[in-house]
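INTERNAL AUDIT FORM
Audit reference: QA-55
Scope: verify that the stored structure record matches its stored sequence.
Auditor: D.O.
Record contents follow.
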Amino acid sequence: MKNIILIGPPGCGKGTQSKLLSQRLGLEHISTGDLIREEQKNGTAIGKLATKLIDNGNFLPDDIVTSLVKQKIIDSKNDNGFIFDGFPRTVNQAKSLDEFLFNRKAPVNTVINIVVSDPVITDRILKRAVIENRADDKLELIPTRLHNYKNKTALILDYFQNRRSIVEVNGEKNSEEVYVDIEKSMA
């Protein structure tokens, strides 16, 4: 079983690369964004809380997001493994996922860090906003989202540094070139 975490700032291409990896490696794509948007669409208590927090550029509490992801893993019929897109976003989530998968004898194999500069991120998010109409893809929320990434999510790299292989790729290339770089790094 192979378990891969994609980390990077909002708009770096995690979703695109996750989908490519999922298709090509037979891994189940787990996107916390998709899980949360489903909760919002269904009008659940989690969805309502998400709307208040995420639509302002903030995160849901760790225990809620971790529960959603763990349940998705438990319910899965996939024996090949998972690609985690947008999770973990905090060190606590990383520790919880790491422990959960280790206890299932299916630890995280690789952490892929997609590196993209702030100006490119801003440009990509604004373009995505036009296409996808996501509530959190607003110009005024980009600084908050980048701050949260740099001060919370990026810290998981330190957590995994001595525990797992971390691969760094240049996310400013086109999506196919980024995928090729990821594939080469995992060979």
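Auditor finding: record pair retrieved intact. Residues 2-176 form a domain with the Rossmann fold fold (CATH 3.40.50.300).
Action required: none
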